[in-house]
Amino acid sequence: METIYTFDSLDQKIQELEIRQEREWCSIKDEIDEIKDNLKPLNLIKNTVEEMNETVGFKSNMAQSAISIGIGYLAKRFVVGKSTSMFKSILGSVLQLAVTNLVSKKTHEASREESYQQEPSRE
């Protein structure tokens, strides 16, 4: 820092520093507002979902899982219907689990075979 010899240059330097302090204070306030906004529950959920969607392969795995669960549920509803019997309810749940696992395994194996076919051979 340079030495100041006159009152005019001292006043000028004080004004510059006050302006700088005001700018930095406004910047800090803006950052605090941004942090508050990011910590709202809705924004936390939104940011988490966006990060999950950016993960490689998450969308395809999520879609495959949703499809297999849906097919299992439809199989249960088709076979059991709206029965009040405890035995049919348990049988329907077992059927739903079996169909869901079966569909999930087949889609997982098919996607694995596609990835092997897309990789270039290393010869």
Approximate strand percentage: under 5%
The helix count comes to 4
Radius of gyration: 31 Å
Which parts are unreliable, with pLDDT below 50 for 5 consecutive residues or more? none
Structural class: mainly alpha
Largest sheet: none
Q: Residue-averaged pLDDT, rounded?
A: 77
Query: Total strand count, please?
Result: 0
Describe the protein's architecture and organization.
83% of the residues lie in helices and 0% in strands. The protein has four helices and no strands. Helix 3 runs antiparallel to helix 4. It is rod-shaped and about 95 Å long. The model has no long low-confidence stretch (mean pLDDT 77).
List the helices and strands and how they pair.
Blueprint: H1 7-38, H2 41-54, H3 58-80, H4 86-118
Helix pairs in contact: 3-4
